[in-house]
Amino acid sequence: MNAPSFTLTKMLPSSYFHHHNLPFSTQKPLPSKPSISSHNNLCIPRRAYTYSFNNLSYGFKRSVVKSQLNEKVNKVEDLEQKQNQKQPLMNRAYPFHEIEPKWQRYWEDNHTFRTPDEVDTSKPKFYVLDMFPYPSGSGLHVGHPLGYTATDILARFKRMQGYNVLHPMGWDAFGLPAEQYAIETGTHPKITTLRNINRFRFQLKSLGFSYDWDREISTIEPEYYKWTQWIFLQLLKRGLAYQAEVPVNWCPALGTVLANEEVVDGVSERGGHPVIRKPMRQWMLKITAYADRLLEDLDGLDWPESIKEMQRNWIGRSEGAEMDFHVLDDGGKERDIKITVYTTRPDTIFGATYLVVAPEHSLLSSLVSHAQSRSVEEYKDLASRKSDLERTELQKEKTGVFSGCYAKNPANGESIPIWVADYVLGSYGTGAIMAVPAHDTRDYEFAAKYDIPICWVVKPDGEDSQNSGMAYAGEGTILNSSNSTMGLDINGFSSKVAACKVIEWAEKTGNGKKKVNYKLRDWLFARQRYWGEPIPVVFLEDTGEGVPLLETDLPLKLPELDDFTPTGTGEPPLSKAISWVTTIDPLSGKPARRETSTMPQWAGSCWYYLRYMDPKNSKELVDKTKEMYWSPVDVYVGGAEHAVLHLLYSRFWHKVLYDIGVVSTEEPFKCVINQGIILGEVQYIAYKDPDGNYVSADSADMLGELHQEIIPEEKVMKSGDSFVLKDDYKIHLVARAHKMSKSRGNVVNPDDVVAEYGADSLRLYEMFMGPFRDSKIWSTSGIEGVHRFLGRTWRLIVGPLLPNGALRDGTVTVDDEPTFVQLRALHKCIAKVTEEIEGTRFNTGISAMMEFINAAYKWDKLPRSIMEAFVLLLSPYAPHIAEELWFRLGHSNSLAYEPFPEANPAYLKDAFVVLPVQINGKTRGTIQVEEGCSEEDAFRFASQDEKLSKYLDGKSIKKRIFVPGKILNVILGPQNFKAGVR
Question: Is the pTM of this model over 0.85?
Answer without folding.
Answer: no
